[in-house]
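pls design
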């Protein structure tokens, strides 16, 4: 399922089902914000969202599925916020770096939630691939939009975007574990974002 309420492997949810799913994701985020990964217990999520435990498992087969879906939902909300105030950098690299740092600071305000979601991504196995792919697609969409109105990205640019995604997730992980300062995170992200300018196609004469 995606953040808008559509199933990844089936028909779109009804309005009532989508509302139930939003309650589940909100309950998961609230529990994770208070106590991190270990605080997210499926029974407590079911109680907090006022759904039966069996119903919860039909939406999300495991805690990992639920937390990865929560990250996708959080990214979707971030994307909407970023659209309201687009980055102001002069180059594509500067705009993407600004965008990713704003996303990082949003996660920084909820460190327990961020840690829970990142741990879920780390633990995700092949059964969670559709949800993990959704997180990757949402991150890619945020980066491509920050780059600005251009022609469809070249294979080289898409490769640069993937490297930037990896750097952003790695920087978030190292910051959460206390192995990197915010200043180091910014330097790493800005360095990776320079790949965008290096892969920009030459202007046609």
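designed seq:
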């Amino acid at each position: 399922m995606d953040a808008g309420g559509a199933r990844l492997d089936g028909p779109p949810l009804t309005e009532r089902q989508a509302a139930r799913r939003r309650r589940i994701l909100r309950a998961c985020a609230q529990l994770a914000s208070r106590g991190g990964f270990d605080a997210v217990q499926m029974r407590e999520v079911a109680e907090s969202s006022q759904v039966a435990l069996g119903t919860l498992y039909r939406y999300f087969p495991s805690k990992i599925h639920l937390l990865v879906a929560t990250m996708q939902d959080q990214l979707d909300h971030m994307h909407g916020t970023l659209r309201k105030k687009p980055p102001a950098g002069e180059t594509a690299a500067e705009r993407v770096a600004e965008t990713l740092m704003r996303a990082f600071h949003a996660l920084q305000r909820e460190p327990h939630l961020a840690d829970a979601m990142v741990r879920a991504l780390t633990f995700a196995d092949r059964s969670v691939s559709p949800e993990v792919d959704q997180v990757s697609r949402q991150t890619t969409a945020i980066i491509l939009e920050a780059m600005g109105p251009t022609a469809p990205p070249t294979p080289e640019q898409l490769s640069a975007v993937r490297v930037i995604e990896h750097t952003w997730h790695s920087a978030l992980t190292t910051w959460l574990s206390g192995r990197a300062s915010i200043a180091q995170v910014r330097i790493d992200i800005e360095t990776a974002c320079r790949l965008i300018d290096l892969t920009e196609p030459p202007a046609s004469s």
